[in-house]
């Protein structure tokens, strides 16, 4: 089922002197099973938007349709608890929210809250621990004894154990070294395909945005600037400050008069396009 935002606005501290705009008049559709990235400068409304996807925030105006739920300003948060089992949100630095005495207990919190019996919840937790690439030996350890990268995987397992249909990631690789970053993105990409997820990712890494997304939502100061494929976004907005490395390099080449057939979104594409160009020129 697609996700629809129908002229949705959100104001923090609504109807008080401290009222501020979270975002304004967002109107778009996210296709089921697509990988959508949300980009925009700090304070543009990205985190505010994703908190609307499982009813943590309720819109001030407009209507959201998600996973069979209709959310309007009158909707009560309590009525959305089932939605939370279908929409998994991995917040920034999720490892900061591990508080149980063992890794297994931490991962099992979600299923237990939804009434799954203990033995089954533990079994699910163990399977999910392996799914995120961690050894089952870690199950009985305290989360505080793990490395930062391992802790993040445990926190992510705590979301995945619910088998969400929609997975929402708020800068999931923030603070990771390049190797861990790539591994983490590969894990999400693998799950996206294997579980036929609808994935929504907030990211400041334009390389990831270009590599993985079907579509990009570009926000600025709470407004939707554009929703389009990464190629459209990165081809037609020369002024966009954030861009993939391959696009930045291509723009340097363009300034020197070199045109490729299409804007390369990844280094691999850049190499392919350059080969075509160079071989083509040789043949001429
Ligand atoms: N709890 C809050 N109370 C009041 N205003 C808030 C609150 N949280 C965010 N805002 C405001 O709402 C707007 C959007 O903030 P939001 O956190 O959604 O931005 P963001 O795009 O996620 O930024 P970043 O890239 O820094 O994470 C900003 O103007 C921000 O100051
Ligand atoms: Mg944010």
Structure characterization notes:
By secondary structure, this protein is of the alpha/beta class. The chain has two domains: 3-237, 3-Layer(aba) Sandwich (Rossmann fold); 244-284, no CATH class. Helices cover 38% and strands 21% of the residues. It has helices at 46-50, 81-86, 103-113, 118-131, 148-160, 178-194, 206-212, 230-236, 245-255, 267-283; strands spanning 3-12, 20-30, 35-39, 61-66, 69-71, 87-90, 166-170, 198-202, 215-220, 223-228. Strand 4 and strand 5 form a beta hairpin. Helix 3 crosses helix 4 (118-131) and helix 4 (118-131) packs across helix 5 (148-160). The radius of gyration is 21 Å and the shape is globular. The model has no long low-confidence stretch (mean pLDDT 93). The structure holds adenosine-5'-triphosphate (ATP) and magnesium ion (MG). Adenosine-5'-triphosphate is lined by residues 12, 20, 22, 40, 42-48.
Residues in β-strands, percent: 15-25%
**Spatial sequence of strands, sheet with the most strands:** 6-7-8-3-9-10
What is the correct CATH architecture of the largest domain?
Answer: 3-Layer(aba) Sandwich
Q: Which structural category fits the helices and strands?
A: alpha/beta
Query: Uncertain regions: pLDDT < 50 for 5+ in a row?
Result: none
């Amino acid at each position: 089922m697609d996700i629809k935002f129908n002229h949705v606005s959100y104001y923090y501290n609504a109807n008080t002197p401290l009222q501020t705009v979270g975002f304004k008049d967002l109107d778009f559709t996210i296709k089921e099973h697509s990988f959508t990235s949300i980009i925009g400068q700090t304070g543009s409304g990205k985190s505010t938007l994703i908190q609307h996807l499982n009813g943590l925030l309720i819109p001030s105006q407009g209507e959201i349709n998600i996973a069979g739920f209709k959310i309007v300003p009158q909707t009560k948060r309590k009525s959305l608890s089932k939605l939370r089992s279908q929409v998994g949100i991995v917040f920034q630095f999720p490892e900061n929210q591990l508080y149980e005495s063992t890794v297994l207990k931490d991962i099992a919190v979600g299923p237990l809250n939804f009434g799954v019996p203990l033995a089954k919840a533990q079994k699910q937790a163990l399977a999910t621990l392996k799914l995120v690439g961690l050894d089952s030996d870690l199950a009985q350890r305290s989360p505080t004894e793990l490395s930062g990268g391992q802790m993040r995987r445990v926190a992510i397992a705590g979301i995945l154990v619910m088998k969400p249909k929609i997975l929402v990631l708020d800068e999931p690789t923030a603070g990771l070294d390049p190797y861990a970053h790539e591994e983490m993105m590969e894990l999400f990409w693998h799950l996206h395909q294997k579980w036929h997820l609808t994935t929504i990712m907030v990211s400041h890494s334009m390389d990831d945005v270009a590599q993985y997304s079907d579509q990009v939502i570009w926000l600025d100061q709470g407004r939707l600037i554009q929703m389009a494929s990464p190629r459209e976004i990165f081809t037609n907005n020369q002024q966009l400050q954030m861009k993939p490395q391959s696009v930045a390099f291509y723009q340097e080449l363009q300034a020197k008069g070199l045109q490729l057939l299409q804007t390369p979104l990844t280094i691999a594409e850049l190499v392919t396009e350059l080969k075509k160009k160079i071989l083509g020129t040789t043949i001429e």
